[in-house]
Amino acid sequence: MIINGQEHRSVSFKDGKVLLINQNKLPHTFEITACESYQQVAAAIHDMTVRGAPAIGAAGAYGMVLAAMSASDQNFSKDMEIALAFLLASRPTAVDLKNALHQVHADIISCLPDINKAKEIALVSAERFTDASAEDCRLIGEVGQELIKDEMNILTHCNAGALATVDWGTALAVLRMAHRKGKKFFVYVDETRPRLQGARLTAFELQQEGISHAIITDSMAGHFMQQDRIDLVITGADRICLNGDFANKIGTYSLAVLAKAHNIPFYVAAPQSTFDLNCEKGNDIQIEERSVEEITHLNGKLIANPGSTAFNPAFDVTPGAFVTGFITCKGTINPSDIRVLNPSME
Amino acid sequence: MIINGQEHRSVSFKDGKVLLINQNKLPHTFEITACESYQQVAAAIHDMTVRGAPAIGAAGAYGMVLAAMSASDQNFSKDMEIALAFLLASRPTAVDLKNALHQVHADIISCLPDINKAKEIALVSAERFTDASAEDCRLIGEVGQELIKDEMNILTHCNAGALATVDWGTALAVLRMAHRKGKKFFVYVDETRPRLQGARLTAFELQQEGISHAIITDSMAGHFMQQDRIDLVITGADRICLNGDFANKIGTYSLAVLAKAHNIPFYVAAPQSTFDLNCEKGNDIQIEERSVEEITHLNGKLIANPGSTAFNPAFDVTPGAFVTGFITCKGTINPSDIRVLNPSME
What was the ipTM of the complex prediction? Predict the structure, then answer.
């Protein structure tokens, strides 16, 4: 992605460090956070310095590289298992992290007992995951841009952009590619409380790309649908089950219900790493509950009634029946056809 | 309402001043703002120092008293007309303001040419509106509390509390009265972006009253409905049309669609002053568009991408078909029966 005229990836590896665009500081400050241990990577995933299902997959993959570099020769296998569990625990809902970690871990273990080769292959495996994820997202853009017509008004939620996915984005890959092909459209950006990924990150990416947009509060989506001002909804996903149910940022389910009530097509764009063929249905997905302070405070300042508590589920689950189509690198597919995807992850 | 152990009204009149609980400073600071001119009252309505349809009606009524006190003897009628227009322009959507202003204005004009009597009657008329509004809301509580059962989970949006209505509240009058009758229930409080009236004011009122509650982001309502954790939705209103369509805080329409999709009863509580028998249908309601900075900034600090704009409709319109019943001082009525209400305002 282009930021201030320069090409960037949200997650990369250089000189023995995992480099993350700090998404908590954007858009006010553009800063690269360097992690020198897998524990630092896990902390950065947990505190959302890096966020977005595919991006935390890539961060986790590189975290395994740091783990392999620092593992003891005597307890290499055990150390790798500990690192795997530690990184896996950093966030529970997005499956990309699990998929990436298991892939890199399996590649490392396959080299044993040659520890030097295992350390070498760790980086190769992580780079392969990351490059594949970026290319997958580019293809999502190619596939999905065909849905975008001139004069369309498109609603998106949270940040399903290049920041969330190494490069290109998922929902935003579609918009980015359509824009580069010269299509003229307008994007309604849900601000996405509590962490404002829409207002901060999606708006930032769209502005960098020169795409017309306006921020709205999450509560306005229904109103604009009612006024015939939304033609299409596109979101990303954090985990997609076999039956088409999927987890995504809290508020996605409400949007899907509203879109259906207004006969507005609802698309979900996702790379192969977001499909979880081991997960039959949405009920099986663990929903992360984050801290109350994310609701009651903003930038460290109390914004709610001091004596009140809050609930903070970070995701919700939308049944596949609400999805018009999943935009994937292999084409746009029906919720009922996920079984035939057979993603390369599996 | 009880605040810190003392009885208060959100709007009152004392020693030639209109006294307003400053709702922009709550819950962090409890402060009474004193207005000494009708222009100050209009400014306080516009900047939401006082907010809530019935409360701005009462503030407007007292504003007319200040206008009558300061009007010139030579141009009394003309001055009153100017004041009426000025106060009317402070906020366009809630009909209570219009109803209150026209009522006090008519009472004043009916005394002419006796200007002294007109000035006297202004206060009598404003007090009558304010007392009637408070009593109306108390009755709403009596009527509505019958809907509340033990163990219920109730969702409310924005602040339809005592702060919004001189005293008691509308939606919150129902909860306040049910609580005082010993019923045990739980309230989900939509934070209500952009101005957080739920997180700040409703949570504050519920806490003062000792009612169990938790704040959620507006985007979570659908998720909790999907999980069968909401049994009932109650909101207030800013203007109710003859056909049952009503305007209320942005996000209400989304809630109504979600409630219908989950077969959850959706009630609207409102005093007589909120019914607009001159308004046939929702399309005729003017929706106030407020400043972009309410979305992009919080407490004066930029929270969104600096280069991005925002849309900020302050209200939306929900069709009557989504309303299970209107809770009024005269009983709970069907959306199709509003014509028979014949509110005292008319």
Answer: 0.94
